[in-house]
Amino acid sequence: MNRLVVVGVQWGDEGKGKMTDYLAQNSDVVVRYQGGNNAGHTIAFDGQKYALQSIPSGIFNPKIKNVMANGMVINPQAALQELEKLNSMGIRDYKLFVSDRAAVIMPYHIALDGAYEASKGDNMIGTTKKGIGPAYTDKYARIGIRIGDLLDREYFAQRLKDALVVKNMELKMLGLQTMEFEPLFEEYLAYGQQLKPCICDTSILLYNEVKKDSKILFEGAQGVMLCIEHGTYPFVTSSSPSTISVPLGTGIPPKYIDHSLGICKAYNTRVGAGAFPTELDGDLAHYIRERGHEYGTVTGRPRRVGFLDTVALRHSCRISGIDSLAIMLFDVLSGIKELKICTHYELDGEIIDYIPSTLSAYSRCKPIFVTMLTWEQDITNIRKFDDLPEEAKLYLYKIEQLAETKISHISVGPDRLQTIER
Ligand code: IMP
Prior knowledge:
Blueprint: E1 3-8, H1 16-24, E2 29-32, E3 41-45, E4 48-52, E5 65-68, E6 73-74, H2 76-88, E7 95-99, E8 103-104, H3 107-119, H4 132-140, H5 153-173, H6 181-195, E9 199-200, H7 202-211, E10 216-219, H8 246-250, E11 259-265, E12 268-270, H9 282-291, E13 304-306, E14 308-309, H10 310-320, E15 324-328, E16 340-347, E17 350-352, H11 359-364, E18 366-371, H12 390-403, E19 406-411, E20 419-421
The protein binds inosinic acid (IMP).
Inosinic acid is lined by residues 12-13, 38-40, 125-128, 130, 132-133, 221-222, 226, 235, 237-238, 271-272.
């Protein structure tokens, strides 16, 4: 279990921050391997709440090495602001390493993210507008700037000049303000200098940690259903949050990964647009949203809520090779009047057990539910599985049966201590 991947198995916001923080206590290294500051990992301890966006969740422990690996897209300005905020909250003693190969999110990526969304009208994805998609696009178009580039004045100047030729054409085409080389160059050069002590080839660092048999926690952002390859395309993010992207996003080969822990809410939520077969509205949705504080950490948007979807869960567990599940926000279901789990979909009169590849077919999928028994009891102070109400245990057993995966952790509140281990 020394190399553990924590991965969201829904549409993000499963509570990965809490579990990563919980598990980070026993880790030597915590690694972010994809995504950027579109993530919002909320961590609560000692009565304080911290919201992390691009900084790994091990940052609170001075002994842990925190790595922002090559698979990430990093907004240096936002990352430095995050560190400043942590600093103002008393978090000053930490170890942070930033990959010289990670992609840089530039201001034109943020402008383009907004413009692409606006151009889609009713079909907008509902991105976080942090420039994630456009930054990954440039990486794959090979006109991206990488963190290491910021340390080499001449090389960076050339890379930025080349990128601006294309980017300014795009900005102009979309009716946006073009960007001048000089101020952008000086600003990002300065960020490079500020980050310089942290910048290195993180694949070497991680390889050395593997050789020492250190405990490494790979911290996924978003969720498998938002995966660019295996998610509900095109309403997805632009990276792969799955376990299978850890090797590519870090430089650590698959053979070194020991365990994938799938983080799964006891129900489903989704922010942004896209089909959501088990979505609820009315009083029940309101009940869950308010009890679960289901509002985006990054954007503050109210999250869409629904009953647990195990077609999506099985898909994610299969794609990500999930070894065990952590069921999060389980306490939110106490007192609920109606409780169901989706087992299959009905698509055009046929019962199916897979995620269709097109959005048009996915939008036609209707959930098939089993109805579960409910419980009234507040479970936030329970620390042992056996002490849970019988109905709550039945709900968990049903998830295990439908997901074909064991549950190893159950979270009954936001604090580190409100965790049941099995
Ligand atoms: P982007 O990652 O900002 O490009 O947004 C693409 C889609 O992923 C949108 O539907 C976002 O709401 C969603 N998304 C991105 N990051 C997160 C996250 O951390 N939690 C939940 N949804 C996210």
